[in-house]
Please model this.
Amino acid sequence: MTRTELTLVVLLVASVLAMAARAQAPLSYAKDVEPIIVKACSECHGGDSPKKGLDLSGGKGFEHLVGVKGQEVPEMLLVKAGDPAGSYLWLKVTHTATQGKGMPRTLFGAKKLPQTELDVIQNWIIQGANP
Model:
Protein backbone atom coordinates (compact mmCIF):
# COMPACT_ATOMS: atom_id res chain seq x y z
CA MET A 1 0.00 0.00 0.00
CA THR A 2 1.38 3.38 -0.95
CA ARG A 3 1.62 6.30 1.42
CA THR A 4 -1.20 8.07 -0.44
CA GLU A 5 -3.45 5.02 -0.19
CA LEU A 6 -2.68 4.67 3.50
CA THR A 7 -3.51 8.33 4.06
CA LEU A 8 -6.85 7.87 2.27
CA VAL A 9 -7.67 4.83 4.40
CA VAL A 10 -6.86 6.71 7.58
CA LEU A 11 -9.03 9.65 6.49
CA LEU A 12 -11.88 7.30 5.61
CA VAL A 13 -11.71 5.56 8.98
CA ALA A 14 -11.60 8.92 10.79
CA SER A 15 -14.66 10.09 8.84
CA VAL A 16 -16.59 6.92 9.66
CA LEU A 17 -15.73 7.24 13.36
CA ALA A 18 -16.78 10.89 13.39
CA MET A 19 -20.12 10.03 11.76
CA ALA A 20 -20.66 7.22 14.26
CA ALA A 21 -20.01 9.58 17.17
CA ARG A 22 -22.52 12.09 15.82
CA ALA A 23 -25.06 9.33 15.21
CA GLN A 24 -24.89 7.95 18.75
CA ALA A 25 -27.84 8.57 21.00
CA PRO A 26 -27.62 11.92 22.78
CA LEU A 27 -26.21 11.70 26.28
CA SER A 28 -27.96 13.27 29.25
CA TYR A 29 -26.72 14.27 32.66
CA ALA A 30 -29.47 12.40 34.51
CA LYS A 31 -29.12 9.11 32.64
CA ASP A 32 -25.46 8.95 31.67
CA VAL A 33 -23.30 11.38 33.65
CA GLU A 34 -24.94 11.67 37.05
CA PRO A 35 -24.26 8.03 38.03
CA ILE A 36 -20.55 8.62 37.37
CA ILE A 37 -20.48 11.95 39.24
CA VAL A 38 -22.45 10.63 42.22
CA LYS A 39 -20.24 7.55 42.54
CA ALA A 40 -16.95 9.43 42.15
CA CYS A 41 -17.66 12.85 43.67
CA SER A 42 -20.62 12.98 46.03
CA GLU A 43 -18.76 11.56 49.02
CA CYS A 44 -16.95 14.90 49.30
CA HIS A 45 -19.29 17.08 47.22
CA GLY A 46 -22.55 16.05 48.86
CA GLY A 47 -24.34 15.83 52.16
CA ASP A 48 -24.92 18.65 54.64
CA SER A 49 -21.68 20.53 53.94
CA PRO A 50 -20.29 19.70 50.51
CA LYS A 51 -16.72 20.80 49.82
CA LYS A 52 -16.49 24.24 48.21
CA GLY A 53 -20.29 24.39 48.50
CA LEU A 54 -20.52 22.23 45.37
CA ASP A 55 -23.31 19.70 45.90
CA LEU A 56 -23.07 16.91 43.34
CA SER A 57 -25.36 14.47 45.12
CA GLY A 58 -28.20 12.82 43.21
CA GLY A 59 -30.59 15.27 41.59
CA LYS A 60 -28.48 18.33 42.43
CA GLY A 61 -25.32 18.16 40.30
CA PHE A 62 -26.61 19.43 36.96
CA GLU A 63 -27.76 22.79 38.32
CA HIS A 64 -24.45 23.24 40.16
CA LEU A 65 -22.28 22.39 37.15
CA VAL A 66 -23.63 23.57 33.82
CA GLY A 67 -23.07 27.25 33.09
CA VAL A 68 -21.81 27.91 36.64
CA LYS A 69 -18.52 29.69 37.33
CA GLY A 70 -15.96 27.76 39.34
CA GLN A 71 -14.42 28.95 42.59
CA GLU A 72 -10.81 28.03 41.87
CA VAL A 73 -10.85 29.57 38.39
CA PRO A 74 -13.78 32.03 38.33
CA GLU A 75 -13.19 32.97 34.70
CA MET A 76 -14.08 29.39 33.69
CA LEU A 77 -17.42 27.65 33.79
CA LEU A 78 -17.51 24.30 35.55
CA VAL A 79 -19.21 22.90 32.44
CA LYS A 80 -19.25 24.95 29.26
CA ALA A 81 -21.67 23.21 26.91
CA GLY A 82 -19.94 22.07 23.72
CA ASP A 83 -16.43 22.81 25.01
CA PRO A 84 -14.65 20.22 27.18
CA ALA A 85 -11.36 22.17 27.11
CA GLY A 86 -13.24 25.24 28.37
CA SER A 87 -14.93 23.26 31.17
CA TYR A 88 -13.18 23.24 34.52
CA LEU A 89 -14.86 19.95 35.46
CA TRP A 90 -13.21 18.32 32.43
CA LEU A 91 -9.79 19.69 33.38
CA LYS A 92 -10.24 18.41 36.95
CA VAL A 93 -11.33 14.87 36.02
CA THR A 94 -8.60 14.53 33.39
CA HIS A 95 -6.01 15.88 35.86
CA THR A 96 -4.98 18.65 33.45
CA ALA A 97 -6.12 21.65 35.51
CA THR A 98 -3.30 24.09 36.19
CA GLN A 99 -5.02 25.28 39.38
CA GLY A 100 -6.35 22.92 42.01
CA LYS A 101 -5.84 19.18 42.14
CA GLY A 102 -7.12 16.40 39.93
CA MET A 103 -10.39 14.81 40.95
CA PRO A 104 -11.64 12.62 42.39
CA ARG A 105 -9.40 12.56 45.47
CA THR A 106 -8.79 9.68 47.83
CA LEU A 107 -6.89 9.38 51.08
CA PHE A 108 -3.89 8.46 48.96
CA GLY A 109 -4.12 11.27 46.38
CA ALA A 110 -5.90 11.79 43.09
CA LYS A 111 -7.52 8.89 41.29
CA LYS A 112 -8.31 9.08 37.60
CA LEU A 113 -11.69 7.89 36.39
CA PRO A 114 -11.75 4.97 33.95
CA GLN A 115 -11.42 6.05 30.31
CA THR A 116 -14.94 4.84 29.50
CA GLU A 117 -16.36 7.21 32.13
CA LEU A 118 -14.17 10.07 30.92
CA ASP A 119 -15.45 9.43 27.38
CA VAL A 120 -19.06 9.70 28.59
CA ILE A 121 -18.37 13.01 30.35
CA GLN A 122 -16.46 14.41 27.37
CA ASN A 123 -19.11 13.37 24.84
CA TRP A 124 -21.89 14.75 27.05
CA ILE A 125 -20.16 18.13 27.14
CA ILE A 126 -19.49 18.04 23.38
CA GLN A 127 -23.15 17.22 22.71
CA GLY A 128 -24.28 20.31 24.63
CA ALA A 129 -24.34 19.17 28.30
CA ASN A 130 -28.02 18.24 28.22
CA PRO A 131 -29.96 17.64 31.43
Remarks:
- The beta strands are 105-106, 109-110.
- The chain has one domain: 26-126.
- Residues 27 and 123 are 7 Å apart (CA to CA).
- Residues 3-23 form the longest helix (21 residues).
